Amino acid sequence: xxxxxxxxxxxxxxxxxxxxxxxxxxxxxxxxxxxxxxxxxxxxxxxxxxxxxxxxxxxxxxxxxxxxxxxxxxxxxxxxxxxxxxxxxxxxxxxxxxxxxxxxxxxxxxxxxxxxxxxxxxxxxxxxxxxxxxxxxxxxxxxxxxxxxxxxxxxxxxxxxxxxxxxxxxxxxxxxxxxxxxxxxxxxxxxxxxxxxxxxxxxxxxxxxxxxxxxxxxxxxxxxxxxxxxxxxxxxxxxxxxxxxxxxxxxxxxxxxxxxxxxxxxxxxxxxxxxxxxxxxxxxxxxxxxxxxxxxxxxxxxxxxxxxxxxxxxxxxxxxxxxxxxxxxxxxxxxxxxxxxxxxxxxxxxxxxxxxxxxxxxxxxxxxxxxxxxxxxxxxxxxxxxxxxxxxxxxxxxxxxxxxxxxxxxxxxxxxxxxxxx
Length: 422
Known about the structure:
Blueprint (H helix, E strand, L loop, with lengths): L4 H10 L19 H6 L4 E5 L4 H14 L8 E5 H32 L3 H9 L18 H16 L3 H28 L8 E5 L14 H11 L3 E5 L5 H8 L8 E3 L3 H5 L4 E4 L4 H4 L3 H5 L7 E4 L6 H7 L2 E4 L21 E2 L3 E6 L2 E6 L4 E8 L2 E2 L13 E6 L2 E2 L6 H13 L4
Parallel strand pairs: 1-2, 3-4, 3-6, 4-5, 6-7, 7-8
Antiparallel strand pairs: 9-12, 10-11, 12-13, 12-14, 14-15
């Protein structure tokens, strides 16, 4: 409810001539855990007219109802204004934490840090705590956005522009994160997803609900549709009708396909884009899925909830939120022969002594080294080995291609195919 709703209700009821008291009792129930939150709340807020005997008595009556299962220490009594504003502030603080860690995730991707490690270190501080420090494609749901916009309006109404701009930045950061993730997908797929099949895993704003209000999946999918991609969408609870409504498309739109299983969605897909953290997505047979996808097969983990090590070992190309550039290029193989010297037919960038340089690798003779666990296999045919290996492009003893970005790794992969790598 908007702040000052109690004052409006008071004015309406005052016209009746009857005696009454207006209380504010905001709920803090989360979708998917509402009953558990009600049975064991962190706190119960009751706002009323603390300056009158009737107001204090009314607060006490409502408090006695909660005291049947909630300890009195968790029941907080306050005035109406404080109660109404506390609800907005609580959701604003939660949204702020998500936008804060998402802002750090962008910095982690640029520097090579791991946002989950950073979040764990920050959350270990007892003054901060670890909750709501999971980076993702962005927050959703009706409450965060609605309450933040309400708070911004109040700040502007009371001539507090600096406070309004502060909270508006939280909203802007969330929108930026969704657009940034969309751009990451498009750029990784050679900046062209026209006609490409993208398997969308999840559409609800979070797991264990069919609520799509303000879901990050809406904006991300709209960005893909603007690029004329083909979306194969799977969500265990959201209906096809609701998806079409949210995306402003007709059910007959050929760009949208509603799939009954994640395996159906991934069949023939160029990439999997995970947008909702459903438990079942962590339990899928990704080896089976890989066999049905286009190559190279991409996974974009917008919730950082999958087993990234396993996916890389299987042979996926992977991007996640807040993860730095991988220092090794992992791929699936049947067998390979690596000559002692091959001619690399592509351009690449490398960093040396803090400077970024470009060179034409075609001018140089290079040696590929295949690294397996605790062993090196240069100039050798591999027929039985683990399902992954890393390749460093070297000139003598100098590692020229470290670090490599995603585009460079794809060029390396294409070059390996040209020289007979399978």
